[in-house]
Amino acid sequence: MNFGLIGYGKMGKMVEEAALGRGHDIVTILDPVSKKDEKYEPEKADVLIEFTRPDTAPDNIRSAAAAGKKIVSGSTGWYERLDEVTRAVRSAGASLLYSSNFSLGVNLFYRIAARAARLIDPFPEYDVAGFEVHHRKKADSPSGTAKTLAALLLSSMTRKKKVCYKEVQEKLGGEVIHFASLRAGAVPGVHSLLFDSAADTIELRHTARSREGFALGAVIAAEWLAAKKENGVYTMDDVLEGLLP
Hints:
Helix content is 35%, strand content 26%.
C-alpha cells in the first residue's frame, strides 16, 4: 500500500520504518512544524498517517478529509474538537481513524480494564484510582490514554461518577476516581490502575518499552482503514473487533 505521513518527528520516522518493514511505500511526507514537504505526492497515498500536535491535528484532519483522503490520527489533546472534526470528515465523505494510543497492548489493556472494573463494581470495599507516567517532553497531561481509561472506568462502574486529574487539596468523595500524572525523563509511557481495599490491592499495569509499538499499531490501523470500503469515523476498537476471533 501507499502511505503518506503528516508530521515527521520521532513518531513520524518510526511510522515510516514500521510501514517500510511491512512492505508498504511512503509516497508523501508533510511536516507542518518545519514547513518542509518531501516526496509530495499525497494524491498517490491510500491513507495519510498523522502524528503532530494538539493545536494542528484538527486542521490537518480537515484538510485531508477535504481532499477525500483516509486519515489515521495518532495526535492527542484535541478531542474537545472531535465533534467538529467528525462532521467535517463525514461531510466530505472521507474516513478518519483516531486513537489515544495505537499500541495493540494498550488497546487490549483497555478491554482488560473495563472487564476488571465491572467485576469490582459490586464490591464497595474496593476503591479505584489511576496513575500515568510519561517523558518530560510530552505535550499533554493527562495523557489521552489516561482519559480513555478513566472513561472506561466510569462507563463500567455504577458507583463512580467523575474523575479528578488535578492535585488533591481536599477529601475526595467516594464517587470520584483520582487519576494522577507524572512527567519525567524519557519514559515512553506507563499506565496503572489500582483497585484497593483495606485487605489487599489489585494492580493492572501497562508499560511501554519504546514507541515502536505505537508506530506498528498505527500502520496496522492504516492497513485496516485502507481495506475498509465504508467511509466513516473509527477508533482502534473497531480495528480490534476485526482482528480478534
